[in-house]
């Protein structure tokens, strides 16, 4: 493969949205950031120079980073942050992955504006396993705040309250026609009668699962999270933050203008940003020219209701691998993790200003009742490799500390998770199954759970409490979809399987950033195997230290 060199300068740049300009953190002054385009088998060498006043790291979301865990990016997990004025070069090779991924900052809430598409085409000379598209367009769904997102999250952590909702959703950085001061910049996606195009849809929003629809056009799903799927046709997509979905769309309508639209899927009982972002699908031969088009209104699609879980379920259950796959069996590690919010008591040393969650509490969240706390003096990966004690403990529980009716009426005594920096150790090559069980603590919610360093098979999902006796019979061990982020149903569960064949320290977390802030994360510590192909590379010389 080829080697691609890029320079990313992290810097404050004036960005005007919703009638106001503020200094946003960008890469090379671009918002969204640059699109990276490579082929399977290529190597990326990306030098980050931090000219902003915040610490930063960059994560290559969905890239497996086989043996190159030092390039994964989550701050204090695989590296210390790149300080203002500092730099770090990420180097990694794409081994066997094709499709749409993305990159984003993995430090505080910087990814609100620091993100971009990462497109991996087949190896040179090879073609897609579907009709060759005439055009390809990345569609990045984002979330925009009128305030500095770093201030929004700081305010929330100071007070323990829920952070403010965003003020807009965006498509390729633009809110679109339905927002103030936005219509002249609405994104236009070209199409022509008869042609079939590929849209690479990425949910880069911080905290919101989104429905996505295009008026009068069917979408044929061909890939998700850079794994091909058995093609299926649908009117509407739902993507949790972190997920990607590639769709084919055919210009089979009379040449005109149609809205591409996205808005919230909200399964939690909480306030949310109820606005709709739009772009325009425009036929090149539409009878209006670019100058008089503004007079003709594009056709608006009817999006599902914000709480339409039935549509989400039908959609997520449509995914299959294109052909039978080798799903791990003879499981070595049978894990059961609860996912939940929580409300912690106000420590007595705090005055009431610092505990503005419900009834004077502070919001929290956890897996198996552990609310994850990042270290601050060294990364977990360094501590793991160099056997430095006192940074983390490897006693993350394989099962919830108490069993309860997870999706029933949960006793308030179970609402307070315990903070900790805990990992779960995996032998190289272990065959792992995890039941991810949502709970009714505070509110049930559809959580997009993302695992770094691996793709996993989603063998089943369902509602209520996972029942090992009956639900195991429903597992798809033939052609389940391969993903890096699973949208766990609200008040339900999902079961994933993977083989721990990549040594390192790998974060697993909810991709709603507010939930990471509250502790919905844990780390897998995967040992080296035998020989070079099973052993982590040594740390790069410029690895940022704390
Ligand atoms: Cu896309 Cu840990 O993140």
From TrEMBL:
<keyword id="KW-0677">Repeat</keyword>
<dbReference type="InterPro" id="IPR034289">
    <property type="entry name" value="CuRO_3_LCC"/>
</dbReference>
<comment type="similarity">
    <text>Belongs to the multicopper oxidase family.</text>
</comment>
<dbReference type="InterPro" id="IPR034285">
    <property type="entry name" value="CuRO_2_LCC"/>
</dbReference>
<dbReference type="Pfam" id="PF07731">
    <property type="entry name" value="Cu-oxidase_2"/>
</dbReference>
<dbReference type="GO" id="GO:0046274">
    <property type="term" value="P:lignin catabolic process"/>
</dbReference>
<feature type="domain" description="Plastocyanin-like">
    <location>
        <begin position="136"/>
        <end position="285"/>
    </location>
</feature>
<keyword id="KW-0560">Oxidoreductase</keyword>
<dbReference type="InterPro" id="IPR011707">
    <property type="entry name" value="Cu-oxidase-like_N"/>
</dbReference>
<keyword id="KW-0325">Glycoprotein</keyword>
<feature type="domain" description="Plastocyanin-like">
    <location>
        <begin position="395"/>
        <end position="528"/>
    </location>
</feature>
<dbReference type="InterPro" id="IPR034288">
    <property type="entry name" value="CuRO_1_LCC"/>
</dbReference>
<keyword id="KW-0052">Apoplast</keyword>
<comment type="function">
    <text>Lignin degradation and detoxification of lignin-derived products.</text>
</comment>
<keyword id="KW-0732">Signal</keyword>
<keyword id="KW-0186">Copper</keyword>
<keyword id="KW-0964">Secreted</keyword>
<dbReference type="GO" id="GO:0052716">
    <property type="term" value="F:hydroquinone:oxygen oxidoreductase activity"/>
</dbReference>
<keyword id="KW-0479">Metal-binding</keyword>
<dbReference type="InterPro" id="IPR008972">
    <property type="entry name" value="Cupredoxin"/>
</dbReference>
<dbReference type="Pfam" id="PF07732">
    <property type="entry name" value="Cu-oxidase_3"/>
</dbReference>
<dbReference type="InterPro" id="IPR011706">
    <property type="entry name" value="Cu-oxidase_C"/>
</dbReference>
<dbReference type="GO" id="GO:0048046">
    <property type="term" value="C:apoplast"/>
</dbReference>
<dbReference type="Pfam" id="PF00394">
    <property type="entry name" value="Cu-oxidase"/>
</dbReference>
<protein>
    <recommendedName>
        <fullName>Laccase</fullName>
        <ecNumber>1.10.3.2</ecNumber>
    </recommendedName>
</protein>
<dbReference type="InterPro" id="IPR002355">
    <property type="entry name" value="Cu_oxidase_Cu_BS"/>
</dbReference>
<keyword id="KW-0439">Lignin degradation</keyword>
<dbReference type="InterPro" id="IPR017761">
    <property type="entry name" value="Laccase"/>
</dbReference>
<dbReference type="GO" id="GO:0005507">
    <property type="term" value="F:copper ion binding"/>
</dbReference>
<feature type="domain" description="Plastocyanin-like">
    <location>
        <begin position="10"/>
        <end position="124"/>
    </location>
</feature>
<dbReference type="InterPro" id="IPR033138">
    <property type="entry name" value="Cu_oxidase_CS"/>
</dbReference>
<dbReference type="InterPro" id="IPR001117">
    <property type="entry name" value="Cu-oxidase_2nd"/>
</dbReference>
<dbReference type="InterPro" id="IPR045087">
    <property type="entry name" value="Cu-oxidase_fam"/>
</dbReference>
């Amino acid at each position: 493969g080829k080697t691609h060199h890029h320079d990313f300068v992290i810097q404050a740049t004036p960005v005007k949205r919703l009638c106001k300009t503020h200094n946003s953190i960008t890469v090379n002054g671009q918002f969204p950031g640059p699109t990276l385009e490579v082929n399977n088998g290529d190597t990326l060498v990306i030098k980050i120079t931090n000219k902003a006043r915040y610490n930063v790291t960059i994560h290559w979301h969905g890239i497996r980073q086989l043996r190159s865990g030092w390039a994964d990016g989550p701050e204090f997990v695989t590296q210390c942050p790149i300080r203002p004025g500092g730099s770090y070069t990420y180097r990694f090779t794409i081994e066997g992955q094709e499709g749409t991924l993305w990159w984003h900052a993995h430090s505080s809430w910087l990814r609100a504006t620091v993100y971009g598409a990462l497109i991996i085409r087949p190896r040179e000379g090879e073609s897609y396993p579907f009709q060759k598209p005439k055009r390809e367009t990345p569609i990045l769904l984002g979330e925009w705040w009128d305030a500095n997102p770093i201030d929004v999250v700081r305010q929330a952590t100071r007070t323990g309250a829920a952070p403010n909702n965003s003020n807009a959703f965006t498509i390729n950085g633009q809110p679109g026609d339905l927002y103030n001061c936005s219509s002249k910049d609405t994104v236009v996606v070209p199409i022509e009668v008869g042609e079939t195009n590929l849209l690479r849809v990425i949910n880069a929003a911080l905290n919101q699962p989104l429905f996505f629809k295009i008026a009068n056009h069917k979408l044929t799903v061909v890939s998700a999270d850079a794994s091909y799927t058995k093609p299926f046709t649908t009117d509407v997509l739902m993507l949790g933050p972190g997920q990607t979905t590639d769709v084919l769309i055919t210009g089979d309508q009379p040449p005109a203008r149609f809205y591409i639209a996205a808005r919230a899927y909200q399964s939690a009982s909480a306030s949310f940003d109820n606005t709709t972002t739009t772009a325009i699908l425009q036929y090149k031969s539409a009878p209006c020219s670019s100058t008089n088009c503004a007079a003709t209104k594009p056709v608006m699609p009817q999006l599902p209701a914000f709480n339409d879980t039935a549509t989400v379920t039908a959609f997520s259950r449509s995914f299959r691998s294109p052909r039978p796959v080798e799903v791990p069996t003879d499981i070595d590690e049978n894990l059961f993790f609860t996912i939940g919010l929580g409300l912690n008591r106000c420590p007595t040393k705090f005055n009431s200003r610092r505990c503005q969650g419900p009834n004077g509490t502070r919001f929290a969240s956890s897996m198996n009742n552990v609310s994850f706390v990042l270290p601050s003096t060294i990364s977990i990966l360094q501590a793991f490799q160099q056997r430095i004690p006192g940074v983390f403990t490897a006693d993350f529980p394989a099962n919830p500390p108490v069993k309860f009716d997870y999706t029933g009426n949960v006793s308030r005594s179970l609402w307070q998770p315990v903070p900790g920096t805990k990992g779960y150790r995996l032998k190289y090559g272990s065959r792992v199954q995890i039941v991810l069980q949502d709970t009714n603590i505070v509110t049930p919610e559809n959580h997009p759970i993302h695992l770094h360093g691996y793709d996993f098979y989603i063998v089943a999902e369902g509602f209520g409490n996972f029942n090992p006796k009956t639900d195991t019979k429903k597992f798809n061990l033939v052609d389940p979809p391969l993903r890096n982020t699973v949208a766990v149903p609200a008040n339900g569960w999902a079961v994933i399987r993977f083989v721990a064949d990549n040594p390192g320290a790998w974060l697993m977390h909810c991709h709603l950033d507010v939930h990471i802030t509250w502790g919905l994360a844990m780390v897998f510590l995967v040992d080296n195997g035998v020989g070079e192909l099973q052993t982590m590379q040594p740390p790069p010389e410029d690895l940022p230290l704390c």
